[in-house]
Amino acid sequence: MNRGRTLLAVVLLIVGAATFAPCVHAAEQEKPKQEHVSEATRLANGDVEKAEEEGTAAFKHSTSVRFIAKLTGLSLDNAYWLCVLGNFAIIAGVIGWALKKNLPSAFRNRTASIQQAMAEARAASEDANRRLADIESRLSRLDTEIAEMRSAAEKEGAAEEERHGRRQAMSPAALRRGVIRAPTTR
Length: 186
Prior knowledge:
By secondary structure, the protein is mainly α.
């Protein structure tokens, strides 16, 4: 019920402003152009405060403010402040409504993008850890392979030394008979 009253008040303010805006506009057009020139001249001369006061006074005594004062029974100054607060409430309400409408989806989208980025980072980290473990295991096997190659080379070297020693121990006559054939070079 309270929301309905607020909505009704906002609608009445908008309708009232829309109804009396042409009257205010027509009244402003009826003013002689000499006042606009004098206001511009005053602004150029640096009398900004006085020009602002005159603008405020024009709004305080506008048709819409007088209508609100007559409708509510308030004084002209109080009706002016009611209109200022009403304008502020309308603008703040529109901004609040727009934020309430758009921010949740923006936050949801941002949260989803952050979660997706975190998942991608987690997957990249797991991939990097897997590759690191693979490289470390290859390095540990490399030490073993090098040790195996060394031992195989040492065994082959020892066997070659033994064969070479046997060949030198045999007489050349035994070599000629073919007991032990000399290795042929290709």
